[in-house]
Amino acid sequence: QPQRSCHCQDGRDFEEKRDCMKKQALIFSDSHGNIYEALKVIERYKGIDAVFHAGDIEGEEDRLRNAIPGQVCIVRGNCDVFRTGMLPEKLCVPFGGKKIAICHGHRYLNHGNVDLLKYMAKEMDTDMVIFGHTHVPFLECSSDMIVVNPGSIAKPRQSDHQPTYGWMEIDGGKLKLEIRRAADDQPILCY
């Protein structure tokens, strides 16, 4: 299939995979077999381009994949023991002109330290890494890497115990990223 390109306002050309059109994605993790809250969130975002799930989905992959017509990327978490061979441990995904690493994180976290996650993402030549495992929302932005954990959509562990998810928009290379409460879509962490 031939590669198409588009011309962005700033004069850059992108291959089809590095599209310069506005793209939106939802980010979930740690649903642990209860995808219901994630599906409710997806219903509120008509026309979403992609859904990324950072693992511990526990058998609900097909329901998530059928929720949108667009791109759905899911990685294996430490509780997805029966999904070995069915789900990858990590992914590198082109999206909206960015390269995104996705993994569950359980092999790369050291007592909450994300340095190994960043190293893995840099080895994959990505702009951002999405992870889960802790069930706690996290967002760290630096000049060379964005590290995001959407928290858990089903079993949150932060002090308010509110299910959370991530919302991301990339428009002409500019990234907007928010961790939002599932109950009311209010942002709690922003970039």
The helicity comes to: 10-25%
Please provide the ordered H/E string of secondary-structure elements: EEEHEHEEEHEEEEEE
Q: Could you tell me the strand content as a percent range?
A: 25-35%
Distance between the termini: 36 Å
Contiguous uncertain segments of 5+ residues: 1-18
Helical segment tally? Answer: 3
Oligomer: single chain
Number of strands: 13
Strand order of the biggest β-sheet: 5-4-3-11-12-13
Query: What is the SS-derived class?
Result: mainly beta
- Tell me about the largest β-sheet: 6 strands, mixed
Overall body shape = globular
Structural features, described:
The protein has three helices and 13 strands; from the N terminus they run βββαβαβββαββββββ. Helices cover 12% and strands 33% of the residues. The N and C termini lie far apart (36 Å). The longest helix has 9 residues, at 36-44. A hairpin with a 4-residue loop joins β9 and β10. The chain has helices spanning 36-44, 61-65, 115-123; strands spanning 5-7, 13-15, 23-28, 50-53, 71-74, 90-95, 98-103, 128-130, 138-141, 146-149, 164-171, 174-181, 187-190. With 191 residues, the protein is mainly β. The model is unreliable at 1-18 (pLDDT under 50). It has a six-stranded mixed beta sheet. The chain has a five-stranded mixed beta sheet with strand order 6-7-8-10-9, with helices on one face. The chain is globular, with a radius of gyration of 16 Å.
